[in-house]
Amino acid sequence: MLNLVLFGPPGAGKGTQATNLIEKYKLVHLSTGDILRGELAAKSTLGLEAKKYMDKGELVPDEVVIGMIEVKLDQNAGAKGFIFDGFPRTNAQAQALDKLLEKKNAPIDMMLALEVEKPELVNRLMGRGKVSGRADDQDINVIENRINVYNRETAPVIEYYNKQGKFRSVDGMGTIEEIFARLCNAIDKVNGGSGCGCGCK
Ligand code: B4P
């Protein structure tokens, strides 16, 4: 299995790059943001509860997102590996993920952290806000709060993976193609060449 954490502040390009990476490495994409927005669109109890946090740019409570990931892991028992996008966002989530993967004997291989300067993050999110209809991308105060929440609550997760020797910093400035090439380069160093991770190349 190949299990990757795709990490970075809001607007760093996690969702964008995950789309390309799952195709190349044949992994299952688990984005907690996408799952939460799906719940919201379905007007489920979970979605309506999560909306209160997402609209303000705050994190949804740990137990909610950990439970969601557990369900998705069980639903994809035969997967060759996973890209965790936007998860874990706190140390408690990182510990819970390690425990869930321990049961499968398939730990996280690496955390790929996209580094992007703040003005570029704001530009990207405001740009998406004009076309996506996402409320959390349309208000500069909410965007600022998401970046502050990232710095305060999420950035410490880097140290969690750094201690395990799994942290890789990746320059997230440039074109989508340039950043994709940097990510593949980092993955292939650990994964033993390009390919899906099963040895087929
Ligand atoms: P997410 O859905 O994870 O949203 P995000 O981090 O803001 O953005 P994403 O990563 O998808 O966007 P990308 O950078 O690819 O979270 C939303 C909310 O859900 C959170 O605020 C929180 O409330 C909640 N939540 C989610 N997970 C949670 C968890 N684990 N715990 C608690 N709460 C959780 O792209 C942004 C834009 O940049 C796009 O328009 C894209 O086209 C553009 N872009 C990307 N790369 C580019 C490049 N190289 N150049 C130019 N533009 C680029």
Summarize the structure in words.
The protein has 201 residues and is an alpha/beta fold. The chain has one domain (2-191): 3-Layer(aba) Sandwich (Rossmann fold). Helix content is 56%, strand content 13%. It has nine helices and five strands; from the N terminus they run βαβαααβαβαααβα. The chain has helices spanning 14-25, 32-41, 45-54, 62-75, 91-104, 118-132, 140-154, 157-163, 176-191; strands spanning 2-7, 28-31, 81-85, 110-115, 167-171. It has a five-stranded parallel sheet with strand order 2-3-1-4-5. The longest helix has 16 residues, at 176-191. The chain is globular and about 45 Å long. The model is unreliable at 196-201 (pLDDT under 50). The structure holds BIS(adenosine)-5'-tetraphosphate (B4P). BIS(adenosine)-5'-tetraphosphate binds next to helix 1, helix 2, helix 3, helix 6 and helix 9.
